[in-house]
Amino acid sequence: MGDDLDRAIHEDIVLVPHRPEWAMAFEREKERLLGLYPREFVQIEHFGSTAVPGMPAKPIIDMLAGVAAMSSADALLESLLSNGYTTSREFNAMLHDRKWLMRARDGRRTHHLHIVEYGGMQWRDRLRFRDALRQSPGLAQSYAERKARLAVAHRGDREAYTDAKSGFVARVLALQP
Q: Reading across the β-sheet that carries 108-117, which strands appear in turn?
């Protein structure tokens, strides 16, 4: 699993046109996770660009899994690692308000699992941003154009790509109720 993690971490950023099957890929993994952890996850939501119809995206399904408390997220990590996920323990040690895992196949990411406190700020902000993009085609178009420019500028640096999008996200969230 370490090889998949290493390859996936260093893969280039490539955006592809929106694919309708992303919604079904989310639903299948959501049902699998809820079957494995029926009491641990309060709710699981599809977020990120693959959750916005028409939005070009990296073909990786972002999943937001809400837990009652972050202490339960820590307890889930080992079990998730035994059920198809991998992660960087060092990266997660730096995160206090969320946990991050990924699924990969053939060295390519397929899913990101972000575990956060259900109803907390991470939960609310990520869903508010998704919903704002879904509700405003103009806003979604502006974001898609920004992402396209940034994917070229930061093709081999995922952290820089993500950081460069953060100002746009913050401005959108500042305008949301």
A: 43-47, 61-67, 108-117, 98-105
We report the CATH number of the domain holding residue 124 as 3.30.460.10
How does the average pLDDT of the chain come out, rounded?
A: 92
State the Cα–Cα distance between residues 141 and 83, nearest whole angstrom. 37
pTM for the model: 0.92
Say if residues 168 and 150 touch (Cβ distance below 8 Å).
no
Fill in the DSSP letter of residue 120: S
Checking if the pLDDT of 94 tops 90, the result is no
- Of 64, 48, 54, 59, the residue nearest 118 (C-alpha): 64
- Show the tokens assigned to 130: 């998704």
Q: How far is CA 140 from the centre of its chain?
A: 17
The tokens describing 5, both together, are 């993690």
**CB-based contact 32:56 (threshold 8 Å):** no
What's the CA gap between 84 and 62, in Å, rounded?
15
Is the predicted pLDDT of residue 8 greater than 80, yes or no? no
More confident residue, 169 or 91: 169
**What domain range includes position 103?**
2-175
Total domains, the chain: 1
Bridge-based pairing state of the strands 108-117 and 98-105:
antiparallel
Percent of the chain at pLDDT > 90 equals 77
